[in-house]
Specification:
This protein is α/β, with parallel strands linked by helices and 178 residues long. It is 28% helix and 17% strand. The radius of gyration is 16 Å and the shape is globular.
């Protein structure tokens, strides 16, 4: 069991002297729930959700522009597939990065919190990813803090095989047009 809560507010209600996390991009999508209609080796709805969030946040090179990512990797397979689907690396790089431990030495830093496999509060796992990403851009992630984290990605997934996906891009600064 677990719980998580967030307060959402417009800038009209935010103390200008308080460091907050701004949601600069948001996207969500759902695949067919009938597994016979899906290629389970691909995360189609995650790609759609990420593309929407990236477009809204002005992200065109996620591997360079995202400093830290909290991914809802419900299984090792889903986490690895998310790396490539989110544009952090190519398909051919995934196994090599994990085998050599190189992935953890480059941007974006993925799951400094340990991710959901280390502490899965089932009903709140996606929202906990958002909270962790917010703590990163606010500089309040304590021992988990990624140095100079300005842009963070939070990913939530649901369904038996991650049919539903949501992606948020959070930042220390609000978009000028947002």
């Amino acid at each position: 069991l677990g719980a998580c809560a967030m307060v959402l507010a417009s800038e009209d209600y935010v103390d200008p002297n308080r460091k907050v996390a701004w949601i600069n991009g948001l996207g969500w999508a759902a695949d067919s729930y009938y597994l016979g209609n899906r290629n389970l080796a691909e995360l189609g709805s995650l790609k759609i959700a990420a593309d929407k969030a990236y477009r809204m946040a002005g992200i065109d090179k996620p591997a360079e522009q995202i400093d830290v990512a909290e991914i809802c990797g419900s299984t090792a397979y889903h986490e690895l597939a998310a790396y490539q689907t989110l544009g952090f690396c190519g398909v051919e790089e995934v196994a090599k990065l994990v085998e050599t431990d190189e992935y953890f030495k480059r941007k974006p830093h993925v799951n400094p919190s340990g991710g959901i496999t280390s502490s899965n509060p089932h009903a709140a796992s996606g929202l906990v990813r958002v909270a962790e990403a917010a703590l990163q851009v606010m500089g309040r992630a304590e021992k988990r803090q990624v140095k100079n984290a300005k842009n963070a990605l939070a990913h939530g997934a649901g369904g038996m095989c991650n049919q539903c996906n949501c992606v948020l891009v959070l930042a220390a600064n609000r978009l000028k047009n947002g």
